[in-house]
Amino acid sequence: MAELAGVLVGNYFLLECLAREGMVETYRARPTTRGGYDVILRLFRPEFPDPTSFREHFAEEVEKVWRCHHDHIQPLLEYGAGDDLLYSATLVTDAVTLEQYLKRHPAQFLPVQLVVNFASQLCAALHYAHEQGIAHGNIQPSSILLRQQEHLLLTHFSMRRVYQEDEPLVAQINEGNAAYSAPEQALGMLQPASDIYAMGVLLFRLLSGKLPYDGEDAEEISLKHANEPIPSLRTLRPDLPESLELVVRAALSKSPEDRFADASALAQALHSAMQPDHQFAIPSVPERRIAVRSHRTRFSWSRAASFLTLSVLLFSLLGASIFVFLLPQRIFTIPGLSFLNVGQTGIANHRMGNGASTLRVTPTVLPGTAMTPATGANSASPTVNTDQTPVLKSTVVITPTDTPTPPPFDCVSGTLSMDGSQNLRQLLQRVNSDYQKLCPGMAFSLSGSS
């Protein structure tokens, strides 16, 4: 942002820029009216667009601070809340800031009793502001004025509204001093408990001369506030009582619920820590109970029908699978289902491809029979003549062929004479007739007694 020194803001002429922090610029200004005194004018310049709605709530919050009347709060002289002009003005006094006071102190840390005195005054001012619905949000040494006789004034309020539930969170890491910001404040959740945390950081700084968390930039410092454990105060200053360190650690709790309930409770705990024989209560971590409700799906007939249908389908698939794999072995080839044409060793040799096969019948006459050549066109076919009942033994050999539609088997030409009763003649004629349709070269004859 460009420096506005030499610019007229309202009734004030900006003389020089004193500080710049986040969206706030602090100027020394002089009123244009006669008899006016120089003022400290804080100019608020939020971003546009404004995701935090600061401009929308500024008039309400600055009016709350303007109405405050407390011994340890510096009063506002004037404020402006126009569309393009947001500022607040306070009188220039001879008081020095606590930051300037600490730089002049050689040891960089203060006596314990003086720190408790300072903290008591600040806690009284914060307790009053919290009762008015105001969260300071900018507690740091530069926001505290020190008058003569160790009298403190709290000034430089952030003018931000207290976080309301269900409001969207907007990170505000670069607003204010990250070294004194509570973990939830960096996320955009400004609460009165955030001021208690800032008081814990200030106590740590005044008692040890160092900040609890430090880093190169605001992001690194904010991460340390949220994640790293609280450093030991007595390691830096062993002469401090243990009870005082417990008070500081309670104020620096990561969770707002684990800190002191209000600023007055913090002040009371500090005074009690200075009394060795007095027992004081440090807020302990409250027991958190998480209500766990069993999430059961309600019964409905549609769900029951779906479950029953799914069960029937699964059992059907299982039964079909068992049936297919328990089918008996076959002696013929089923085209396209090669996985069923296994286990036929010695009976069928399956050829991968079109699944065609040829049956070849080779007649074999058992001992005791005689074969005589037949006459006629089929002279190559044998004729079997015997006085005993012949037994025809054949061997089935499946030989793959390349013909597209092979016959089921090769016909054998000849005459088969059977010795038996004449009562079988009619049956044998029917068999002979059926067999002639398949193999015309083969004939059956019956001989024997009637």
SSE layout and pairings?
Layout: E1 8-9, E2 12-21, E3 24-31, E4 39-44, H1 54-66, E5 78-81, E6 86-91, E7 96-97, H2 98-104, H3 112-131, E8 144-147, E9 151-154, H4 183-186, H5 192-208, H6 218-227, H7 233-236, H8 242-251, H9 263-273, H10 301-325, E10 358-365, E11 370-373, E12 382-385, E13 392-399, E14 414-419, H11 425-438, E15 442-447
Structure description:
The chain has 3 domains: 1-92, Phosphorylase Kinase, domain 1 (2-Layer Sandwich); 95-283, Transferase(Phosphotransferase) domain 1 (Transferase(Phosphotransferase), domain 1); 338-447, no CATH class. Helix content is 30%, strand content 18%. It has 11 helices and 15 strands. Helix 8 packs antiparallel against helix 9 (263-273).
